[in-house]
Amino acid sequence: MQETQENPKQKKDEDAVCLRREIGLLPAVSFIIGTVVGSGIFIAPKGVLMNSGSVGLSLLVWALCGVLSLFGALCYAELGTTFTKSGGHYTYLLETLGPLPAFLRLWVEFLFIRPAVASYVSLAFGRYVVEPFFAPCVAPEGLIKLVGILGVTFVVAVNCWSVNMASRTQVTLTFVKMFALVLIIVPGVIALFKDFLFLCYSLQEGQRTSRMLSHQCLGFSIRFYLNFITEEVINPNRNIPLAIICSMVTVTIFYVLVNVAYYTMMTPGELLMSDAVAVTFANRALQGVASAIPILVALSCLGALNGGFFGSPRMLFVGAREGHWPPIFSMIHIRRRTPLPAVLLLYPLVVFMLISGEIYQLINFASFSRWFFIALATLGMLIHRYRFPLLPRPFKVPLIIAVTFTVVCFFIVGLSLYSDPWNTGRSCALTLTGVPVYYLTVRRFHLPHRWRHFFSKFLERLSANAVPSEMFPLWETVE
């Protein structure tokens, strides 16, 4: 009798249109590692060495960035278990500092941060796929962009099809990129044991310059996109902290070991002369499989791209559900259980930015906005902890770690304002353009009566020309 009473309820739960909890611990770890490890570790060591001035200091920068990332990961583990809704930064700012900072985070994410980052990664994917066929000649830029667009199209199709397919793709691509890192680390470790004195000499080589390290700070990306999909993680109170800590510790160890491997096989001068450090390393240490390195790096870029398209649309989905974005983006497909409108919104923005060629310029000042809102999110966590000390928190980061990370984030923001005022100033200006948009769309009742009347008439005309809802039988809004 009890089974017959429970079956209708279970059937009703299964038929409910909502995002399902389908992300286990392994996909969660793969999701974080897959978004953190892109093309940077295969290229960025050159820039870090160039700005730090010595091998020893560059290794120290990588290690300190890893520690900073771990501190941030612990903060976001507390945020993710305290606020169980998806949406990441948007949700945390909404719950701690109010709707305006949350809307601004949503605004800059889809105005230039996510399209710029996705365009940069897709361009790197296209470059690593195309250039081996044209070496030693220069590959056509148009073909590189075309292959990049194909990569974006593939990722969008996977994320529109099903959550399971997207998570399985992420797990597969994460294992591929970890295999690529192991392929670099193993010969480096062998060479290290063979010639330990050479490494000792290299660690002391070069002058320690007094250049600003703001480029490394801005370029080191803390990607906690698992917090964007909290509602889809199985047992989030356990899996979110465990996945974040395990993945960030793993990435930090692997990054430092990869850099040590680079310096065991190349001198600092040779590394600075290389535009693709991993390819140069493979030509020297892995001659038999050197041709496979560009393919592995391309697949690594594809994994980072897939992770970004999986996580960021959930922020837009939650923002639309809260009334901060058009309602169509709070809809999910009845059969696929994917927030398809939110995923599709990113596609034309990424393609347009990739074709326009303004990617690198946007990346430079998009980093400022990302760090600024990360600092605001952890500051909001501290304020919320002070205001509601008795609120249950399944995971609680030590106060000294949370304060240290918040202070360092604001220091990085201030350092970027000092070292690159032009790009950071434009980033501030673009962020502030969301303020009038917020008051004209979300908080119209705060406007003068004449303004409200004008925008009401304008929205009525748009609604009159809108497509009737009966034409969308496969969509349903999630409340």
UniProtKB/TrEMBL annotation:
Keyword NAD: no
UniProt GO molecular function: L-amino acid transmembrane transporter activity
Protein keywords: Membrane, Transmembrane, Transmembrane helix
Subcellular location: Membrane
GO cellular component, one term: membrane
Superkingdom: Eukaryota
Membrane topology: Multi-pass membrane protein
Iron in keyword set: no
Annotated TM spans: 23-43, 55-77, 111-130, 142-163, 175-193, 242-265, 285-305, 338-356, 362-383, 395-418
Family annotation (InterPro entries): AA/rel_permease1, AminoAcid_Transporter
Name the UniProt record assigns to this protein: Si:ch73-352p4.8
Organism the protein comes from: Oryzias sinensis
